[in-house]
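Please review this one:
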Amino acid sequence: MKIRIFDSREECLNAGAMAFIKYALANPAGTIGCCTGTTTEPIYEMVSEIYKKNPFDASRLNTVNADEYLTPKGYDKEPLNMRCDMQKVLWDALGIEGERANMPDCNPADWEAAAVRYEKRVMELQVGLQMLGVGKDAHLGFCLPGTPFQSVSHVTALSEELTRELVEDMGVDPKWGPFYGITMGLKTFMMGKAVLPIVSGSHKAEAAMNAILGPVTEAVPASILQLHPNCTWYLDRDAAEGIIGRITADGVRIK
């Protein structure tokens, strides 16, 4: 485990964008694992802006997204999805489309079968760089505290926070709940050849501290990353406030 701490959120996210581009340049037919959310979406916007000014070969690049909403059965409006967000912030700019733009099906007839198919697709592509946002409770994707470390892509209930976003931000009538999604599992994330968790803000400092310095436990999903042989954490100084002075850049605890 390695750790990089940046003075500002902007520097941290920019470093994440450069890590994306560096991987794409070195592996033009490779696969990048992506997340959606307030941490990673600005990174993809930065990648897109850099690409517009200095295009690089993305014609064979693949992406696989960590998770997707599932549209409730009988829902009478547009299917719930985050695909449009990825389209807007990344795929359209880089020309990533078709079988190279991978995300779970948001409206499958059989939810469980769709999760199995998605896991198979992720394994086929073999993620080279797995980028991860980390939640306030140290969740990864939709894998909340208590998710088994051996979990692969699966159907899961959405957190209260995500449910609130659907209702308040997307205007979804709560009568359609409880809401569910498909997410890569923790074992799936660990299959990435390199893993890059990115954390920003003091509101996530406790989660980062527990994941990096605490015991490896299913109560803290991101703590599993301590076991990955090629994991580098990117944190801004606010998110790192709980580990500064307690751990070296190579992940060694300071006694």
